[in-house]
Amino acid sequence: MYFKDIIGQEDVKQKLIESACKGIVPHAQLLCETGGAGAFPLALAYARYLNCTNRGDADACGRCPSCVKYNEYAHPDLHFVYPIVAKKDKKKEVCDDYLAEWRPFLRSRTYFNLDNWLEAIDAGNSQPLIYSKESDEIVRKLSLRIYEAEYRILLIWLPEKLHPTCANKLLKIIEEPPQNTVILMVSEQPDLILGTIQSRSQRITIRPIAQEAIVASMLSQYGISPDDARHVAHLSGGNYLKAVEAISLGEEKEYFLELFKSMMRNSWARNVKGMKATADELASLGRERQKGFLSYCQHLIRENFVYRFQAPELNYMNAPEAGFSVKFSPFVNERNVFDLMDELAKAELHITQNVNAKMVFFDLSLQLTVLIKK
Ligand SMILES: [Zn+2]
Questions:
Q1: Has residue 176 got a pLDDT over 60?
Q2: Is-contact 198 168, C-beta < 8 A?
């Protein structure tokens, strides 16, 4: 990870570069963001820059022995702490047990969130944590002599997931830091971190990525049109992960959009056979997906109602959805929008209450035949 890999955030990069060049490096720093803004890659690029023996004005050299080890995230003085799911049978209880997954994960992407990581390690439904056992590991690592680096780095991703025992050990370390050790913490929910850790760390706020920076990155990386790039940047709210998500509908949403279209078309045409077929298909999905579909329908109804006002800053649809809205939006108006939302919410409630799904979706289609013509 280099500074050049991070989209926007020029002011923060400059601050970190200055800190390294002047040798004024606080031993505990807390980078806070709301997600997808680049706090983790910034911390990693900063760590690399701090230890590069041939620093340029704007970035690390990429060739010195330190940089080469950073390329593999395998520098002996670079330690990672991150949430994991303990699997006792597989002897996975501390972060280092997951290094074989963690390093390729980092190499494969610049931006990620906790869900991406949990998916990469097949976490299932278990709650990710930084377990109390990790505190012994941290103490052990920091009590070793520094091998070769100018700064030993302890990079803690999501300290809000620290087990209290671990947080208290960390606090002691922050109070009496070992020499030349820099603790970089990257948090998305800093309010959940032990107050005493917060107050003893230098806080760096990473704001959402500037719209222009996202537009530029979408143009160069995805080759979409300037209009689409601006639209995507608006949808993202400065979160790079959301921008990427907005470019392509997820497969699930694409499927839901098709189901929504056929449900609406059948109801408009009073095609009972079609209504029944769509209801059967929806009934074959699991309950969670049925609920997901119904809440997606409510989102589309809202967006199609707003679409009529031709105020793009109020609209949150991606390209395939907006394409459908050109023809569909005239059917959603002030005479039926509340009833449409009510019917969809009612169907969602019935699904939650385990009412027969075929009946719920067929009944919904019948209601729609009336409402859609209002
Ligand atoms: Zn270097």
A1: yes
A2: no
Gap from CA of 37 to ligand 1 centroid (Å): 25
With residue 221 as reference, give the H or E element that holds it. Answer: helix 211-222
Distance 179 CA to ligand 1 centre (A): 22
Report the separation in Å between the CA atom of 69 and the middle of ligand 1, taken as the mean of its atom positions. Answer: 10
pLDDT at 106: 95
Average pLDDT score over the chain = 93
Å from CA of 53 to ligand 1 middle? 5
Distance 49 CA to ligand 1 centre (A): 7
At 287 the pLDDT is 82
Read off the pLDDT of each residue in 154-166 and give the average, rounded to a whole number. 96
The backbone region for 183, taken as left when phi is positive above 0, alpha when psi lies in -120 to 50, beta otherwise, is beta
Query: For the ranges 27-41, 64-78, 240-254, 287-301, which has the lowest average pLDDT?
Result: 240-254
The CA 21 to ligand 1 mean position distance, Å, reads 14
The one-character DSSP state at 129 is B
The whole-model pTM stands at: 0.72
Q: Are strands 28-32 and 202-205 parallel, antiparallel or unpaired?
A: parallel
CA distances from residue 259 to 49, 65, 215 in whole angstroms, order as listed? 50, 55, 31
- Separation of alpha carbons 77 and 179, rounded Å: 13
